[in-house]
Amino acid sequence: MRVAFLGPAGTYAEEALRASTPEDVEEIPHPTVYEAVMAVQDGDADRAVVPIENSLEGSVSATLDVLAAEATGVRIAAEVDLPIHHCLIARDSTELGAIERVLSHPQATAQCARFLRERLPDAERTSTPSTAEAVRMVAAEDRPWAALGSRFAAELYGCQVLDEQVADSEDNVTRFVWLAPSAEPADPDATKTSIVFWGFNDQSPGALVDVLRELADRNINLTKIESRPRRVQLGHYMFFADLDGAEHEPVIREALEGLRTRVETLRVLGSYSAIAAR
Predict the structure, then answer these.
(1) Which of 4, 214, 231, 235 could form a disulfide with 48 if both were Cys (CB 3.0 to 4.6 A apart)?
(2) Residues near 139 by Cβ (< 8 Å), separated by ≥ 6?
(3) Alpha helix (H) ranges present in the chain?
(4) What is the mean pLDDT of the chain?
(5) What is the pLDDT of residue 234?
(6) Residues classed as catalytic
(7) Cα(88)–Cα(149) distance, integer angstroms
């Protein structure tokens, strides 16, 4: 099985992949979340593993946007929660006061904001496509740079860990999703369903409440809801929601049918279960 993931080697996505599959798989790194997702859409990979939500910084917009807009032939097949342990990493042992630049993915930088503010206030911040790419860049440059990433990445690229557990909270967890082609059978043991919908009178008072009544009136538990811009006009949004229950259950099926009568577009992003990380 060919599995795409946000690369390069050494990302948390790769750790999530390895922690949630007992099989030998062909790991295919991609430089962006978009490209990893579209590898499944285009048939270049059988599965993909990408981040979708972090306990400190919220949802990963790149994942939500591609699932809602372009990856219409892809569904969420499973989820796995991975504890995230950010380290401050340098090519060689270095005093923190000598570090001129800190590189990392924007999510990781935000998750470590207090550490950076208090311990490295004068260091320049540089965004990279992934934490592993930040470590790779630090390893390749003989400069007083540091990266925020995992011990796994530090070992992989021959770097030194200067400090561990530098995130603002020790309870830092990222939810990753396994993606599969929509044409494949859904999980018969699914316990959760993710949807996205848009196209109703969302500037009218109570309009969203009326839409969500299709769930509330059937006692369906809504575990998460958030909005993202539709990119058509200011003030118009698409809404992502997670529900307890599987799409094949009669009450969920009825609720989704009711939602479709109230909105312009409703997409089921997947019905799936959680995989325990090993």
Answers:
(1) 4
(2) 91, 157, 158, 159
(3) 12-19, 33-41, 61-69, 106-111, 113-119, 131-140, 151-156, 207-216, 250-260
(4) 94
(5) 76
(6) 174, 176
(7) 7
